[in-house]
Amino acid sequence: MEANPNTSITREDLYDQVWSQPLNKIALRFGVTSGDISKACAVLNVPKPEQGHWTKVDLGKAALAPPLPAAGSLKTLTWTFTPRATSAAPRKPRVKSTFPRKRPKDRVFEDGEHPLLNGARRFITLARRYTDAGYYKPDKKLLVDIVVSKSGLDKALILANSLFLALEAKSYPVEIQSHDDRRFHRAAVDIREVIPKKERNEHYWRERIWSPYRPTIVTVNDVEFGLTLFEMSELVLVRRVNGDYVKESEYVPPKKSKYWSDDTWTTDKEYPSGRFCLQAYARGGWVYQWRETGDHDLSSQLAEIITTLETSVDKVKHLIAEQEKEEEERWLKWDEDRRLERIEAEKRRVTNAIESSKKQLLEVVDQWGGGNQLRAIF
To answer: Which of 150, 170, 295, 309 measures 20 to 30 Å from 253, CA to CA?
Structure first.
């Protein structure tokens, strides 16, 4: 098959380009990295500028380009670049795990329970801390991503198990993110069932809910989606009694007596509603939620959830490609800004050195009585 002219280059053309502009700009045009350009130079025996060459060019101190060596016994005189599907920023490559990410398709789940939920109840209920609203804050952080209260725990585990088994049945493995995958981050979670367009107080504070060290993910057609199951909260009228909050519906006022006075007061606070929300998210900023209502629970939406994940694969891939392109552009701009800063610093250093030399020379000449004549020259 004939090579694409946009990705093939001859020895002579490569030599001309590497001595006319920085490698990162050439790499951007071919859709590759600076390392790929350096590799092509090594294979085709093309000399390339040393580090700091382009700074010296801007200062007018660059060395001349060496002549292109004879081809000699080179096996090829052209190089074909393979553009990357998505341009990755020239950063340290991600170290991939040596363990397989996907589980066998024919995996058998004992007692109908997904492995991620094995022991989850015990670790959640051993929590020594709770939010003011009663949500668990387990001490164990490497745990399935479920945010729930004591009253909603049973329902949450049943919902999570049904969802995970349904995904596994479609050969979509559900697991906790591997330690080496650092580019996938858990999306923010707002547990409020009704989120006002504008907070009543711009300094509104919400107690921080529990979050795991690593997200729970499902891989659908080579795209990773994060999953967070949380119990939504609703505003409840509560009364402050002796330093604690009591729901107004459960408050029993004390018997009135001669010296009785009511020092309590009421306010609204978020409390678990018993209704759940599943939040799915992916790289590129994609987020989608399925919420329970009074007559429409999550267990009846499993097929819809899986279908939505499947149909969102192409969109997520596009968003990831756009995100990586923006990251690379930001990285190249940062690199160019640092290069210009080095140039300016070098110019300042040279200017300061010249001024310092002038000053020293004038001091010496002043001692011999010819300073005024020399000042006229400068």
So the answer is: 150
